[in-house]
Design brief:
The complex is a heterodimer of chains A (146) and B (182). By secondary structure, chain A is an all-alpha fold. Chain B contains 9 helices and no strands. Chain B is an all-alpha fold and 182 residues long. In chain B, helix 1 packs across helix 2, helix 2 packs across helix 4 and helix 3 crosses helix 4. Classes of the chains: A mainly alpha (146), B mainly alpha (182). At the A-B interface, helix 1, helix 3, helix 4 and helix 5 of A face helix 2, helix 3, helix 5, helix 6 and helix 8 of B.
């Protein structure tokens, strides 16, 4: 004989035992004195515990909670902060990418010695490159290239 | 599914700082939240504090809300954790019983006996170890199934069965004379 379990007895007392099990439950208790005895104990305990009725919720609980709330949810504040961080990160990334691409595409102009500008000014030339060429010609060893 | 969608919509409003939406949630859940906290701590002021903290946590966590579970399950979990943490913090504090001693004097004998019976039940539940007490509160008083208790507490169903079995056995012993009188 398969006896009724404690859990089934509890479910029956809670009113949550499935309907198909209720029939089997009642049939078994009808023929099993041991389970009837056990069930009587459960019924007694259930009723004893039920003497502690539902406590009344304080009427001002909602008002108290709403008064104690922070102005905004912490997550909302967090999300604003997170959004700002994301924008900053995007700007940094864009700047970094721009710098990298710029470096890849940039070709340095013809080398201009640091003193080319001064030489151009002293020779009254507008173009430092011309001055650089003149300086180079002056510095070149006599006799041309060897 | 409709309930989940409605709760998700409310939580989105809460995440945007909508106090009306939170007020609606409080109204829907405050009784059960407070009842669990009260039955566990058996002090009204402590139950107030725990309920308040639970809803403030919900307010702050609304932005992360994912509608995979019922809001009530989430709230139960928070309340269970707050209760267990609370008891740890209050480990040395005495548990107040029987209406905290601030009820007016009762002359009616039947009413007096009824109050004494309630106090006996309260004392017996207060004497249970933390997890057994919480399991009984959720099972007997909140009418939750083993599975629902598992979702609310994070404890396995086998552990809950064991907790309840030991708790009810202890309560049967404690309240044996009450049962014979009924």
């Amino acid at each position: 004989m398969v006896h009724v379990t404690d859990m089934q007895m509890q479910d029956h007392l809670q009113g949550v035992l499935p309907a198909d099990q209720e029939l089997a439950f009642a049939a078994h208790l009808g023929e099993c004195a041991e389970c009837r005895r056990r069930f009587a104990t459960w019924e007694g305990l259930w009723a004893s515990l039920g003497r502690w009725g539902a406590p009344a919720t304080p009427g001002d609980l909602k008002a108290k909670i709403l008064t104690a709330l922070p102005a905004q949810p912490a997550e909302k504040k967090g999300r604003s902060w997170l959004r700002a961080m994301r924008v900053a990160a995007a700007l940094l990334l864009a700047a970094g990418l721009g710098h990298g691409v710029g470096r890849m595409l940039w070709r340095p102009p013809a080398t201009t010695p640091p003193d080319a500008q001064a030489a151009a000014e002293s020779l009254h030339l507008d173009d430092p490159t011309t001055a650089t060429m003149l300086l180079a010609a002056l510095e070149a060893p006599e006799g041309g290239s060897q | 599914m409709a309930d989940l969608a409605r709760e998700a919509a409310l939580m989105r409003r809460v995440a945007e700082g909508d106090r009306q939406a939170l007020a609606a949630i409080i109204e829907a859940h405050q009784e059960r939240v407070w009842a669990v906290a009260y039955r566990y701590t058996q002090r009204r002021a402590d139950a107030d504090d725990i309920s308040q903290e639970a809803f403030i946590r919900l307010w702050n966590a609304a932005g992360r809300w994912e509608p995979a579970a019922r809001l009530s399950t989430w709230l139960y979990r928070v309340v269970v954790n707050l209760c267990l943490d609370f008891r740890r913090k209050q480990a040395h504090a005495p548990v107040a019983l029987s209406g905290e001693g601030n009820e007016p004097a009762i002359c009616d004998v039947a009413e007096l006996e009824s109050q004494e019976t309630t106090a006996r039940v309260q004392r017996a539940i207060a004497a249970l170890p933390e997890r057994q007490r919480m399991a009984v509160i959720l099972h007997r008083f909140e009418g939750m199934s083993y599975r629902e208790i598992s979702q609310a507490t994070g404890w396995g169903e086998a552990a809950i069965e064991s907790l309840l079995s030991r708790a009810y056995a202890a309560l049967r012993t404690q309240l044996a004379d009450l049962q014979s009188l009924m």
